């Protein structure tokens, strides 16, 4: 089952709000115009958006593979903690 925290909801709402405001200011077709006129800035925004969305994908993958996720969800019962080498 997918576990969604408040962090994920806050990230998605912030991203959707920023896109909504930008779309409201610049109007229809702003992204196509940005890619055509400023491809380096558009690519930088795409990489930044990918980086912001990575916690939504990486944490469930780590959880599914049985890797330590204590830095993300330490309060869950099925959290895997890293094994320390002494």
In short:
The protein is an all-alpha fold and 86 residues long. The chain has three helices and no strands.
Hey, roughly how much beta strand do the residues contain? under 5%
Listing every helix as H and every strand as E from the N terminus to the C terminus, the arrangement reads HHH
Q: What is the oligomeric state here?
A: single chain
Overall spatial form:
elongated
Mind explaining what this structure looks like?
The chain is built from three helices and no strands. The mean pLDDT is 82. The protein has 86 residues and is mostly helical. 1% of the residues are buried.
Keywords, please?
86 residues; 3 helices; 0% strand; elongated
Give the SSE layout:
Layout: H1 6-26, H2 30-37, H3 39-65
Helix pairs in contact: 2-3
């Amino acid at each position: 089952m997918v576990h969604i925290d408040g962090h994920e909801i806050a990230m998605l709402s912030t991203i959707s709000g920023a896109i909504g405001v930008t779309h409201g200011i610049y109007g229809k077709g702003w992204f196509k115009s940005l890619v055509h006129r400023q491809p380096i800035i558009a690519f930088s925004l795409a990489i930044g958006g990918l980086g912001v969305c990575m916690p939504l994908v990486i944490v469930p993958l780590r959880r599914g593979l049985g890797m330590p996720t204590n830095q993300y969800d330490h309060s869950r019962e099925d959290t895997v903690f890293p094994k320390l080498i002494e």
